[in-house]
Amino acid sequence: MLIKINKHIENIQNHSIPFRSIDDLAPLIKEAGKAKYVLLGEATHGTSEFYSLRAEITKKLIEEHGFSFVAVEGDWPSCFEANNYVKNRSSADSVEDVLSHFNRWPTWMWANQEIIPLLEWLKNYNEDKEADKMAGFYGLDVYSLWESMEAIVDYLQKTNSPHVDKALKAIECFEPYNRKPQTYGMSAALLGESCRQEVLELLQSIRKNHKSESEEQLSLEINSLVSKNAENYYKTMITDDQESWNIRDHHMVEALSRISSFYSSEAKGIIWEHNTHIGDARATTMELEGLENVGQITRVKYGKENIFSVGFGTYEGTVIAAEKWGAAFERMPLPKAKRGSWEELLHRAGDHDKFMIFNKENKHMFEERVGHRAVGVVYHPEYEQYGNYVPSSISERYDSFIYVDKTQALSPLPVEVKEE
User: Any idea what the Cα angle at residue 29 is, between residues 53 and 344, rounded to 5°?
Assistant: First the structure.
């Protein structure tokens, strides 16, 4: 066992590259730039360095490799406010005002200091660009059922659409549930009282009568897609947690496809999501549970050669998370990685920041499954040794990996959580 561990450490030392700045990541960015989609992960939703590094990589991909947009693990309506800001169409007084729209828990995922420099950079980048050459910022997630329904009604009323009645009918169907997803899910799953037909009719009407020729029409289409898939997600999560996961990740890929089509068939996009979404599920024990994810779905849909996924990890530090769902965020310790885990092996190979690119020469060296840390928005550091590690074939799960030895917690903005 000791011989095997020492061999793992030796392989990491021989096939990793130290880095101190974004310029040192040039070989990784060059490889990523060849892909249609670059998937940038994170081991937690609350680590400062993961956001900052992804932002710097994103800038290089847009400026030097012709990428058209960033799509993140966030809600479409609030991210579209940020998109309007970076495209100089927002009436907001400041970027902080824009980020106040991220008021659904967990607010800190996007209402944080670390995302501000990227949004300001995008705004400056777009300033002298024609509309079709501007870089966008979009949300791929499925949670914004009520917000998306309201946005649909607002748009249809503003444009005097004759189809607004279908939207009003759909949103009225959801009114008795008081914006509480679990209440709706229980009613739909256990009592058979759902709004499925209403949202399907709405989506069909919008697709038939509203072509996505402008970003406002694209927003209408994505919001209607969210309404359909969110209804299914909330209904399914009551009885089948695995299937609801799959609904969510398939939705994110469908939304990604719609965004790409709006730009052009040649458009290249950057996706920011947790490692558990962007790393191929087939290289982990997720597959045994019947789980599929964005990394797997995009590789199958677009071809592995068109996807470049980058995992992120750390050995120790601090992190923003909460003790339970809906609770206030806390700055928590991130303990030293579990003995024998991927992160601990990286640390023992040298307590410095490093990155790896997996290729034909070295891929077989990192195929053996090892524990790989994953921290969500709910976290209990004291119990980490008994969970939080997903057995993974790292070189099958990712195309590259960025390791930061010691990390700091994210810096959340003071945004009031909207009650649900």
Answer: 55
